[in-house]
Design a protein that fits this description.
Distance between the termini: 24 Å
Structural class: mainly beta
Number of strands: 15
Order of helices and strands: EEEEEEEEEEEEEEEH
Protein name: Kelch motif family protein
Largest sheet: 5 strands, antiparallel
Shape: globular
Number of helices: 1
Radius of gyration: 17 Å
InterPro entries: Gal_Oxase/kelch_b-propeller (IPR011043), Kelch-typ_b-propeller (IPR015915), Kelch_1 (IPR006652)
Oligomer: single chain
Number of domains: 2
Length: 195
Amino acid sequence: NNHLLFITYRDNNISVFDLNIFQFIKHDTLPTNNDIWFHCFVSKSENGQVQEMTKTNQKSQQSYQMLLFKEKTGLSTEYDEDNNTFQFCQLPVCDDIAPFYKYAYVCINNVILFFGGCNWNGNVVSKSVYKYSIRENKWIIFQNILSSPLKYCVAILSEDNAYVHIIGGEDVEQDMPTHMKTEVSELLSEEEMIN
């Protein structure tokens, strides 16, 4: 159906909006002490559609699965549409990215790529790329791969998923009129490229 919109917002809230009836159908609190803003929030499924449908006693059950990262918070969130309930599970966050937020990110082939980011007061800005494998529940860090430290930037996949474009942002002190292009194959393994 693709009729549900999941919204995460400060302080640590998640809401579900039904696009068919134009109403909020669920509000909940995320199990974190971090303010949720400038964070990563992605569907666990590749195309953003329903991740899992199971039939039990002739009844269809729909489950939506999402991942959220911000600083030291890593959450797997599952929404059960039939029962209108959330389940949350903590995910590991590697020490190198744990101080950061305001990074760019893309999700491709069960991998999330994070670009740059900064600490809470903005005086430490990253030049690294971080890779989280959803399937393996594992982090890999590519140190100093960006040409300059970046925060507040945006990452966009090319239509053929071959390139990531990293646009705009700031370094430690000023706006950066930046457009970097990197090949996805340089950041994903051969196995990750075909999955």
